[in-house]
Amino acid sequence: MSAAPSDTLVELRHGARRVLLAPHVGGSIAAFDETRDGRTIDWLRPATPAALAARDPLGMASFPLFPYCNRIRDARFMFDGELIDLSGDGNAFAHALHGNAWRLPWRVGDVSNSRATLHFLHQPSREAARHWPFAYEATQHIVLDDHTLTVSLFVRNLSDRPMPFGMGHHPYYPRTRNTRVHARVAAMWRSTPDLLPTRAGAHPCVDAMASQEGMSADAFDLDNNFAGWSRTATIAWPDEGRAITLSAQAPFDHMVVYAPASHPALLCVEPVSNVADWVNLDVDRAAKGGAVLEPGGSVSATFAWTTRVD
């Protein structure tokens, strides 16, 4: 199949399972569902027609995070003796958020019935979303099969100097009164009121997620990073007899859970390579994640969602 135009949805199918990609909306996944006994099962929260029309990544099923995950305090940090100022990157938040690739269109590469490759090229400029001062390229290779949706991410530093870097994906799951989250983590990062991490430590949600029944998505007001993630988490709907398991490779050594009390329809469990604000956080690199890519250096990693219906 020839490459699709970047301003149209790309549909992948494998049997009764379907994935919709929205390359023009930040290289996002717009839907992941399947049909069983005449009904549709949404494994990720599907994008609405309004979100697609508005090209709103926050309304998609999941979107990629490049070249960093989550927030950077005041949109500024020091790197290699230089102040990196992202305050002009057009991000409408108090702190820089999620990088820039989620706010720009991706190009569609090879596509077949059940797999696709999306490409992104960043060249710095004064244009808002191009304000990141390091050139890089990224790809997403997306494959759908009988049980699993697999996403492989790749990035290469195209600059002539080292580049600080992080990556991840930001999935939204259907959230109901009976949704449970199962995961094993060592600690939760406490945060400031504007959601910048301060220290990792104990929290009741850590034990709740590790329990046999899992953590209710409504039990805590969460927008937090988690340390010591086993790289596996399951979101379950026991009343519906189904579950989806997220599994990830290194360097996705960190997890974010977003289950806000103020927005009871929202639930995110995200694989990420760095804690929020890692470039400003004064802790050991092993604790906060993130990386530095030398000129021409690259990194790749894979994560997957495996589904189960009882």
Automatic annotation (TrEMBL):
One of its GO terms (biological process) is carbohydrate metabolic process. It comes from the Bacteria. InterPro entries: Aldose_1/G6P_1-epimerase (IPR008183), Gal_mutarotase_sf_dom (IPR011013), GH-type_carb-bd (IPR014718). Gene3D superfamilies: 2.70.98.10. One of its GO terms (molecular function) is isomerase activity. This is Aldose 1-epimerase. The lineage of its organism: Bacteria, Pseudomonadati, Pseudomonadota, Betaproteobacteria, Burkholderiales.
